[in-house]
Structure formats: C-alpha cells, structure tokens
Specification:
CATH superfamily of the largest domain: Zn peptidases
Radius of gyration: 19 Å
Number of domains: 2
CATH topology of the largest domain: Aminopeptidase
Oligomer: single chain
CATH class of the largest domain: Alpha Beta
Shape: globular
Helix content: 25-40%
Number of strands: 19
Structural class: alpha+beta
Largest sheet: 6 strands, antiparallel
CATH architecture of the largest domain: 3-Layer(aba) Sandwich
Strand order of the largest sheet: 5-4-9-6-7-8
Length: 304
C-alpha cells in the first residue's frame, strides 16, 4: 500500500481550532480524486459547517466520523506555552509553527513544571506550535507525529473509493473538548435519518492490544456504547473472518462523546488501528493494522 497521502497529511498544520489547512487539503483532494471513486459523493461544507466536511454517498445508513485536528501548544507570553489537547511532555521535542515574522522552530522545555520553548526569538502571542514532522517507514511500520488522527482520515478516504451508501464526516476540535459533532450529528439526523456511526480514530497499544493483530473494536473507553450495536459489529467481523482486537479501557474518548450526549439516539463504536507512543512525535502503527482497518470498514459500511 502507498502511504504517501498519509505522509503528506501528517505534516499539515491543523491544531484544534485552526483546522483550515487540513479542510482545504481534504476538499482539494476529494474534488480531484472523486472521479476515480466508484460512486461520486455530495460534498457538504461552507460557512454553516465551519471547517468541517460531510460526504454523502447514495442512501446512507451509517456515518464515519474522523476528526482532522491535532494536539499542540499555544504561545502565551514570552516563551510560555499552553497545551492544546493532551500532548505528552518531554524536554527536547521539536516544535514548529508560523507567525507574522516567518517560520517558528523551537524545542519544548520544561522549567519547574512550567511549559516553555527554546528558540532564537520570541514568537507572537497566540502562535500555535505543533510537533515537527519526521516521517519514518520500513517494511512493517509507519511512524510520525499525528497518526492520531491523520490515519483515521486516511482510512476514511480509502473507504470513500468504493463506498456506495454512507456518510463520512471530517470533524474538528476533537482533541480539545469537541464542539462540532453536536451540530453535525443533528444535520445528519434531520436530513438523512442516520442514527448509527463508526469512529475512525486511532487507539493505543496496551497490555491487551498489540501490533499486527488487527484494528481495535473498542467495547468501552471513558464512555460505554450500546452493547447490542458493538456485538453486531463483532459478529460481522467474525462472519467475514476479518482480523480485529477487542479493547476495554476506563479512560480516553473521541467524537463519540458528543454523539452519546446528543438529544438523538445515536449508536456508535470506536474502530481503529492501535498505535504506540501516543500523543508524541513518534506515533507508530503497523501496516497490517492499517490495511485491516480499511478492510473492516469497507465491510461494515456494507453490512450495518
């Protein structure tokens, strides 16, 4: 499988609240490549959708939600930093951004527990810094910052190539409290009568989840999805002899939080490849798990 698209997306500056570069990239990619897809979608975006995108294929029953934002840092005053989302903190991580004076390159510094950056100059207040991309690829693995969730977007775009009936939602703000899915889900219910979803996001390697054994079907994280819906997904995976791993966690979350809290009765399940070194510049995923994730989604979107 060619991962050049994933490599490109991992290097796009799109921290929570400033996803416009990722939105523009996705729109350009979709408009340029949809002629090669088996079915052409309706592309929904614009002022009333902020920096989110919805693709509608045929007669959708299920929606894929994939967030396009990343974690990072906001420059406060002087060399102070404030976290965007929950990045792992390690002195020396390379950071990059841009202000009115040009490219901002720095390293993460931690002084008596306070977050700062080291650089040749002070950056303008409000400048966003993200992990500097360093793509690594070998026979078995791909590794870079922001596999979470550019890999979820990559999965959605690969599924779009063959999707006949379904919706794909590229959402924002997921890493820093959410906020977009609440109105996106309402639009899908009101206009297309969709009430079930798959969360195309990235999970983590743990004592019960390992590399190369397939994508995770999460039975719970900080929230608990409806068991009958999760069981249906597991039974489809078994029926088609697709690789997967079951996950049970007591923490973590995704776009599913806003679906479960919505006034409409949404079913949801987190399904995604597991990664190591979560929320660092070194997020690492096995290629077999990426391929397995795409295969599982293609089947689930037909069967659900």
């Amino acid at each position: 499988m060619d991962f050049s698209l994933l490599k490109t997306m991992c290097a796009i500056h799109a921290p929570s609240g400033n996803e416009v570069a990722m939105k523009d990239f996705l729109l350009d990619y979709i408009k340029s490549n949809q002629k090669n897809w088996k079915h052409k979608p309706k592309i929904i975006y614009g002022k009333e959708f902020q920096d989110n995108i919805i693709l509608i294929f045929g007669k959708p029953r299920t929606a894929i939600f994939s967030h396009i934002d990343s974690i990072g840092f906001t420059v406060r005053y002087g060399k102070q930093l404030v976290k965007i989302g929950g990045p792992r903190l390690e002195k020396g991580y390379e950071l990059i951004g841009k202000d009115e004076h040009g490219i901002c390159e720095a390293t993460l510094n931690i002084v008596k527990g306070a977050l700062t950056y080291k650089a040749k100059r002070n950056f303008e207040t409000g400048t966003e810094l993200v992990f500097k991309p360093n793509w690594r690829e070998n026979k078995n693995y791909v590794q870079c910052c922001y596999m979470d969730n550019r890999l979820g977007c990559f999965n959605a775009l690969k599924v779009a190539e063959t999707l006949k009936d379904g919706a794909i939602v590229f959402s924002t703000w997921e890493e820093h409290g959410g906020g977009s899915v609440s109105y996106l889900q309402k639009y899908l219910v009101d206009n297309y009568g969709i009430y079930q979803s798959l969360i195309s996001d990235i999970s983590w390697i743990s004592d019960g989840v390992v590399h190369a054994k397939g994508p995770v079907i999460s039975m719970r994280d900080s929230l608990i999805p409806r068991r009958s819906y999760v069981n249906k997904i597991i039974s489809i995976a078994k029926k088609y002899n697709l690789s997967y791993q079951l996950e049970v966690e007591g923490a973590g979350g995704s776009d599913a939080k806003e679906l479960q809290m919505a006034s409409h009765p949404w079913d949801w399940c987190f399904v995604g490849a597991p990664e190591d070194f979560v929320h660092t510049p070194n997020e690492k995923v096995h290629k077999k798990d990426i391929e397995g994730m795409i295969n599982l989604y293609e089947v689930l979107m037909k069967e659900l």
